[in-house]
Write a structure and sequence with these properties.
Structural class: mainly alpha
Helix content: 55-70%
Strand order of the largest sheet: 1-2
Number of helices: 6
Bound molecules: protoporphyrin IX containing FE
Number of strands: 2
CATH class of the largest domain: Mainly Alpha
CATH topology of the largest domain: Globin-like
Shape: globular
Length: 125
């Protein structure tokens, strides 16, 4: 499964610009982020009804990942993940707030940080 996702991601990177443009057009259609969850669930349910037993849990898992990738590429959003303190990344939060940028302000505690680091969840280590 990991190999599959890896391959999908590497082919996918060339499409992200077009998907971002598609996402921008969707904003013009009045689509908001919450709509994607509804459409994603409807897609998974439809595939399940159409494919029956052939829609295995594994296949369903792939579709959930692919939909999540397309959704993220259509709505790229900055996420600042940092301790709940006035350290270095706090200046980034202040700047984003100042310029009114819509971003995810994720505050983490030290145990979560070290757990993520040990699990290799950070791109730059
Ligand atoms: C994986 C997610 C989605 C994909 C790939 C997708 C794809 C598309 C495409 C290719 C179009 C044709 C027009 C264009 O290229 O701009 C379109 C139109 C549209 N989509 Fe989506 N869409 C997605 C999610 C959604 C969601 C979540 C909604 C909201 C419920 C939505 C609502 C619409 C509307 C209202 C139109 C315009 C229809 C029209 O004016 O005829 N889409 N979409």
């Amino acid at each position: 499964m990991i190999t599959w996702v890896d391959r999908a991601l590497s082919n996918f990177s060339g499409e992200t610009k077009k998907l971002k443009q598609l996402g921008d057009r969707h904003k013009g259609y009045g689509v908001v982020e919450a709509h994607f969850d509804v459409v994603g669930q409807a897609l998974i349910k439809t595939l399940g009804m159409a494919l029956g037993d052939k829609f295995t849990d594994e296949l369903k898992g792939y579709w959930v990942i692919v939909f999540g990738m397309v959704k993220s590429a259509m709505n790229p959003k900055i996420r600042v993940e940092y301790f709940d303190m006035h350290g270095r990344a706090h200046h980034i939060r202040l700047l984003l707030d100042y310029f009114g940028v819509d971003y995810e302000d994720r505050r983490i505690d030290r145990p979560s940080f070290f757990a993520n680091k040990t699990a290799g969840n950070y791109t730059f280590g």
